[in-house]
Structures are given as C-alpha cells and as structure tokens.
Amino acid sequence: MKTVLKTSMLAAALSFGLAACDGPKENAMEDAGEAKAEATEAAAEASAAAGQITDAQADKMIDKGEAKADAMEKQGEAMDAGATPTATTTPM
What we know:
- It is a single chain.
- This protein is 75% helix and 0% strand.
- The protein has helices at residues 2-18, 24-49, 55-80.
C-alpha cells in the first residue's frame, strides 16, 4: 500500500512539471481525475483498515481509480486537440 502511495505521489509530482505543456481542458480533466483517484484511494484504504475489504481488493479499487483518472486526462487532451469528447450522455 505504501508503494502505491509513493508511486501516486511521484506521478503527481511529475505531472506538475509537465503541466505547462498541457492545454486548459486537459489540465482541468487531469485535476478532476486526480481528485477522484485520491478520494477512491482514501476510501479503499479506510475500508481495508476497517477490515471491510482485503488489501488486494483495496489495491484493485485504487488501480481502477488511477486508470479512470488517466482516461479523463486523455479525454481532456483530445478535447484540447479539437476532438469530440468520448463520454456519452442520455437525452432527457
């Protein structure tokens, strides 16, 4: 678990160094994705500490949260490049 946290912190630090190269939509999507990933990580670690889930289950939750954050960043990058977002919405 500590390794995952250290890796996440390193990735976040590196992303700040590259932020100047990103467009505004990519930065916004990246920030939102990172916030969600951090919330997921905190919830997973709390659940594991409380004995509600195993460490392996918590790691899977964290991995899924990080993958979703990466996908959000790529979506923002595509939006900055002029592509249409890939998210779908349901008409009301």
